What we know:
Blueprint: H1 12-20, E1 38-41, E2 50-57, H2 61-72, E3 77-80, E4 97-98, H3 103-107, H4 114-125, H5 141-163, E5 170-172, E6 200-203, H6 213-226, E7 231-232, E8 236-242, E9 248-254, E10 260-271, H7 280-286, E11 293-294, H8 303-310, E12 315-316, E13 321-327, H9 328-333, E14 349-352, H10 370-373, E15 388-393, H11 394-399, E16 417-420, H12 423-436, H13 438-441, H14 450-467, E17 505-517, E18 520-521, E19 528-530, E20 536-542, H15 562-577
Parallel strand pairs: 1-8, 2-3, 2-10, 3-7, 10-20, 11-17
Antiparallel strand pairs: 4-6, 5-6, 8-9, 9-10, 12-18, 13-17, 14-15, 15-17, 16-17, 19-20
Helix pairs in contact: 2-6, 2-15, 4-5, 5-15
This protein binds flavin-adenine dinucleotide.
Amino acid sequence: xARRSKTRTPLxxxxxxxxxxxxxxxxxAGAVPAIAFSTATVQxxxxxxxxxxxxxxxxxxxxxxxxxxxxxxxxxxVMLEKADTYGGTTARSGGAVWAPNNSYMRKKGLADPKADCxxxxxxxxxxxxxxxxxxxxxxxxxxxxxxxxxxDHAGEAVDGLxxxxxxxxxxxxxxxxxxxxxVTDHFAHLAEDKAPRGRSLLPLRDDGTRGNxxxxxxxxxxxxxxxxxxxxxxxRVSRLLQNGRGEVVGVQATLGGxxxxxxxxxxxxxxxxGGFTHDPELxxxxxxxxxxxxxxxxxxxxxxVRMGIDAGAALANMNNAWWNALPLEAALKLxxxxxxxxxxxxxxxxxxxxxxxxxGNEKIVWSGKGDAFFWYDPxxxxxxxxxxxxxYDQFTRERFGGSSAPIPKPGVDSPFVLxxxxxxxxxxxxxxxxxxxxxxxxxxxxxxxxxxxxKEEIARFNRFAExxxxxxxxxGEGPMDSTARRDGNDKPNPTMYPIxxxxxxxxxxxxxxxxxxxxxxxxxxxxxxxxxxxxxxxGLYGAGNCIGSPAGQGxxxxxxxxxxxxxxGRQAAxxxxxxxxxxxxxxx
Length: 588
Ligand SMILES: Cc1cc2nc3c(=O)[nH]c(=O)nc-3n(C[C@H](O)[C@H](O)[C@H](O)COP(=O)(O)OP(=O)(O)OC[C@H]3O[C@@H](n4cnc5c(N)ncnc54)[C@H](O)[C@@H]3O)c2cc1C
């Protein structure tokens, strides 16, 4: 029986932007794909180029977990990857996994009771609704269920990857001589964190050393290949194919040159296709403030958001991301940049806004960097912190050069570093640079009061450095505040030393960026995508940065992104593999 096609027309606004060349500022610039992301109802005469029980989209941690665990559950699997290479952003990463109550903690005698852990996750994921006395800490049912699923299953995912031979084992992110974990959760200083050490794990190499994201890519690819799971690179999934009952029964992928292929999914399609950092239009309309780029692979353009909307999915967490700070001009050169500026080195440095005022705790862990950029001043109708300035003195330039992106190696001349013998000269150099970037960053200028504000702020910071107490932003108090103490620093706070009263001074422009975004179609605890009435769309699953993250706005600790990617990739795999073969209306 032939079915009515509901194929949609191409995206007119994006095509218009592309054709007209408008929106050329950095907040909108970027490749605008001329692909129509959509759903279509399959026809009885549909022909399939390939088929499998489970079709997995992407090849990062979420997709690899989904593919491997679906295979282990008895499903025949195929992976479709848009890029020409395997591994996604995961391959660029540190490779850590945040897994509460994992078997390594238990072996070490580190308790991580469920109620305490859920309290911690709820507190940092949803601070705006967190309620200590409520049974679900003030969270809606589904948001609570997602946290619970991560607590219950993250350890199983980690152990599962070892059991099926992907990694020889995991170990704590860093350890003391006696094997006790050193590294803490990102919010270990909060009273709600009762098990601050041990949840962050790294995969091990065969020789027992700690691996990273490169190891994730290497080992999961080898595991996928050894199971004869086809990895089709250069395949951009662009359309969901549904049967007459609205069940997802396959996908269409676009190849180079515009050729398309169809792949039937007998049991389910699992997306692990990353976030939308590299779709500037989605960033403009959904994120809670302006970003200039991020370190996701350039192929992470939010394709699943567009397909999900077309399939009737509810969206979740679209205003959040795994935030970071970026040297602005590096991001303007290349939107997909791994040049990060999250925790700048040096104790005699501060970060200020266009008024010369500090914007926050410069040493706080990178994931806490986003919101300071997004402060909107309704009086001036501007984002005064949208571009910030990392300011430091000669000592920090010499001693801490190369310790983080905004401070280049000693002797290395970075085109992004501005200098001046006085603060007035430095301000003039900044003003000139801002003017030269106007086409990319808009009319962002220094306030007339910048130098006066900066001088006051340096004097205030220097007083804090003497006493060791940052009364404005509590720099150095958090366990994750980076310390880069100068030799011979006799000041009480290792993260603060008075900024010199003599030049030269240096400045780097800093803008907001992401590791990737983490909003998209809403899922339930089985990683099924939900529609706008909170009902699962049969056959459609997602995990990792392409879906509304279970973590909400929280970055629980090292591995806070790959952890849930692996957990929910596995959840999706187990659910999809258990499904009956779906009828698509044609004959097999
Ligand atoms: C320097 C750095 C260090 C980091 N360290 C850590 C860390 O230690 N721990 C941690 O938890 N996180 C870390 N992160 C973040 C982490 O890398 C990502 O959040 C995580 O890897 C995302 O995994 P994913 O599977 O969701 O997506 P990705 O790994 O980005 O994979 C998505 C894949 O989907 C593909 N794709 C996109 N659209 C389509 C389509 N339409 N069709 C087919 N394929 C498609 C993409 O090409 C890509 O390969 C770090 C990031 C960076 C850059």
